[in-house]
Amino acid sequence: MPGSDTSYHAAVNCHTPLLAEPTLAPLRSLSLQSDITRASKPNNMTFINKDDAENQENTINAGNSETEIGAEAQEATTLERELDIRIALKLYPKAAAWSFFFSLGVIMTGYGPQIIGNLYGVPRFQQDFGYLFNGKWIISAAWQSCLSMGSPIGQVVGALAATYPMEIFGRKKTFSICVVLTAGCVFIQFFARSLKVLVVGELLGGLILGTYAVIAPAYASEVCPVVLRGILTAYVNLCFVIGQFIANGVSAATHGLDSHWAYSAPFATQWFWPAVILAGIFFAPESPWWLVRRGRLQDAENSLRRLAASSVDVKPTLSMIIETDRLEQQMEAGTTFHDCFKKSNLRRTHIAIGVYSIQILSGVYLIGFSNYFFTLIGLSTDDAYNMGISLLGVGFLGCILSWILLAYFGRRVIYSSGLLGLAAILFIIGILDCVPNYMQRPSIVWVQTSMMLVWNLIYNLSVGPVCFVILGECSATKLRGKTIAISTAIQAILGIVITVMIPYMINPDAGNMRGKIGFIFGGLASMSFVWTYFYVPETKGRTYEELDIMFERKVPTREFTNYSIL
């Protein structure tokens, strides 16, 4: 949990700074006693045990705390960094579990648009909703654009609107309401028998789907310790892939049906997730950061206890949540959308928007059209759907492997290296499409589709998951929901543009570019790499308090890695 970014920080009393040992006992039992002891005994500190810490006042007076991290707090931050992933999972298993739970909504966000893209290649859907073109049933490029735009248009509004109930009612209640509304929107999609009704269902559904992309990373970044923050926020991207993977699996199982169930069954599958989420949401703890901002300190402490193992003393964590909130208030960090574009927050918002939008610019929306794209470049319908499943299976593997990369390498390195790889693959796909007599050379077609698998592996090793890590870390805690909302909305607007473009570029009755579309996205990915080099800082291992200070001091991008806060 972000509070545990500083869970070893000095607990602030009225006059004397004290350092409680929230996880010292369990750490000692895990053979780290000598390291922890050496790292945590400055001469000017008084140590208290857990029982003594619990006798401190519940309401912590942070009035005497300095704006910058003092020597004691810096030592405590160093102690926190002694945690490795294995120990952190033992101390904060419930924080990890609830982060996974709140990310279930993102599975629906990945599932919905993928299903629509898959249906364009389903024979029965083409017959019931399309028209004949050169002896084949197809969905026109115009209607494809309308259907595919329903979700991103809805997400623009949904992402921005989500921040208000999130701040008023909290993450938990907002999530619950959105899940109920999603279940209702599925009824429209399920019973739609015309493209107009289906567009309405996609638009309304998109309004709600946009909220999950804001709620999940915000919640995950607010309940997990710093060593788990990268993995748990990157898990949001894995949920997108899981949703897409399930969509492709369902489509592969139903696309051959000669009835409305060929497209109705994929829509009906969406009811499964609301049922699971609503069964467990009652037991979920609220974000302690939101509770502190609402002045509910006792509730925040109770929430922290529910997120950590019983051996962890949460009072120092609560102290530092309060202290970080106080620091942001002192830096005049407001809580409105306008504040996201003021002072140091402008830079942070710029980074968040950039890293999220690059997902679109690097070609991720091609995945939504993957099955249809595979049929256009020469695969049979069955081969296209099998390749679609393989594509997302590789993506799933990439997401899992990204957790290992995040443990050993910085966010900036992984993200920028991935962009270079994506650009190279996209250019190769475009070049392969220029081979003479392309459609009469099946081996070239299979190489091109295989390169799509490589692209998706690299994307989900780097740009896909790391985006959400940077998104959660570069935003101020008071503005995290709004920063993520702005980034999601702008990404969705960009997605609308790309969604309109892709059908007109690849459809047989329009541009018929096939794989040559790789040249366009390869160029965009290359330009994105240049932007990343100059603007995306390294945030790995930094607490939120440290990041607040570094952005306030306007530390240059390439100095973030080795910058020392004195």
Spatial arrangement of strands, main beta sheet: 1-2-3
Rg of Cα set: 25 Å
Give the name of the CATH architecture of the largest domain.
Answer: Up-down Bundle
What's the CATH C level of the largest domain?
Answer: Mainly Alpha
Uncertain segments: 1-76
Report the helical percentage: 55-70%
How would you characterize the overall build of this protein?
- There is one protein chain.
- The protein is an all-alpha fold and 566 residues long.
- It has 2 domains: 2-83 and 291-309 and 316-330, no CATH class; 94-284 and 332-559, MFS general substrate transporter like domains (Growth Hormone, Chain: A, Up-down Bundle).
- The protein has helices at residues 24-29, 33-39, 50-54, 71-80, 85-91, 93-102, 104-119, 123-129, 141-169, 171-191, 195-223, 226-254, 261-268, 272-280, 288-293, 297-307, 315-330, 344-361, 365-368, 370-376, 381-408, 411-432, 442-461, 463-474, 480-506, 517-535, 544-552; strands at residues 11-12, 17-20, 46-48, 131-133, 136-138.
- α11 runs antiparallel to α12 (226-254), α12 runs antiparallel to α21 and α12 packs across α24 (463-474).
- The chain is globular, with a radius of gyration of 25 Å.
- It starts with 10 loop residues before the first strand and ends in a 14-residue tail after the last helix.
